[in-house]
Amino acid sequence: MRFPIVSQIYYRQGTLIVTAIALVFAFIFVIQHMTYTQTSGPSSGSIRDAVDQALESINIRLRGRVSPISSEYNLLDLDETDPRLAELAAEKCTIDWMNADRLQQDHPCVIETIRRRYLHPPADLDVPYNLVAPNKADPSVGQAASILNYLGNQTKGFFIECGALDGEHLSNTLYMERTMQWGGVLVEADQTSFGKLLSRRRKSYALPVCLSLQPYPTQVTFKVTYAIGSVQESLTPEQSKESNMLTLQCFPIYSILLAVGRTQIDFFSLDVEGHELRILKTIPWHKVDIKTLAVEWDHVGEKPLIDYMGPKGYYVFGRNTVNVGNDLFFAKNDSRHR
Ligand SMILES: *[C@@H]1O[C@H](CO)[C@@H](O)[C@H](O)[C@H]1NC(C)=O
Ligand SMILES: *[C@@H]1O[C@H](CO)[C@@H](O)[C@H](O)[C@H]1NC(C)=O
């Protein structure tokens, strides 16, 4: 007769314990939910952070679809015969998507966008130049001669000149193109200068874009002033009201090289009013072969450039000091004793 009573007591206690445990779990759930709502709401941290996080997660998902990943320089590193290339070039490829998702430097969408929308082909070799001062063989202030001398007066080389201005005035590459049968790529973000550049009939590719300071395509606000146009990353309200502010599309230098199908470069001229080092830092040096560079250091200072280029395998073989800009000339260490 005692057993049923005892079991009844245990039964009641059991019910109480189960109810208590359930209450505790419900309480924990409510608290967690409240905490979650608080931390993910707009009151904690800026909206910009939230957008950045969202973009990052999209990027991670995109990267997850394609492998292997070479993330240091934001590369897809796909084999050229990979069947996914065509799909990636076509699938939802727009300028907005490319920028918002910070597509890889070698993403087919980025390369195709450059080719289709920005790349102007070289003028035919038999089309005469249209120059302001056709008798001035070398409009550079010593850069062309120094580089050519280092390269043993090489003919038929390939250059890329960033900050190409109007394609003639202070051009570091016109001499090579006109008299040494070189070809190359001219990049100029200032639209007025670029119009003039196209009219010169240069025998090189030309692009009206800026160079990205990040290893992915970006858009920036650009201040338009002849010869000293430069990228403005943050603007005061007064500045953004100025009428000479334009929004421009920028591409990583490596994406531009892939778009013209050339990663072996004899001379890279970089003069972009202060962003030289950041642009150099986007370059996947293991993917390109750049023999010589002329880099303006006025805004950056010599030392940071030399400190960065040294471990990449470059030494300074010369300097140019003139009133329109100071250049450092770099060459590959392994070309030192030729
Ligand atoms: C290259 O040509 C220039 C002018 O024609 C000449 O002064 C210079 O010595 C040459 N340099 C080399 C390395 O051949
Ligand atoms: C290249 O040469 C520079 C200057 O002599 C040196 O500082 C740097 O360590 C060298 N880099 C490599 C990768 O050998």
From TrEMBL:
The keyword Transmembrane applies. One of its GO terms (cellular component) is plasma membrane. Signal peptide: none annotated. InterPro entries: EGF_Rcpt_Signaling_Reg, FkbM_mtfrase, SAM-dependent_MTases_sf. Pfam families: Methyltransf_21. The chain crosses the membrane at residues 9-31. Residues 161-301 form the Methyltransferase FkbM domain. The keyword Membrane applies. It comes from the Eukaryota. GO terms for biological process: endoplasmic reticulum to Golgi vesicle-mediated transport; endosomal transport. Keywords: Membrane, Transmembrane, Transmembrane helix. This is Methyltransferase FkbM domain-containing protein.
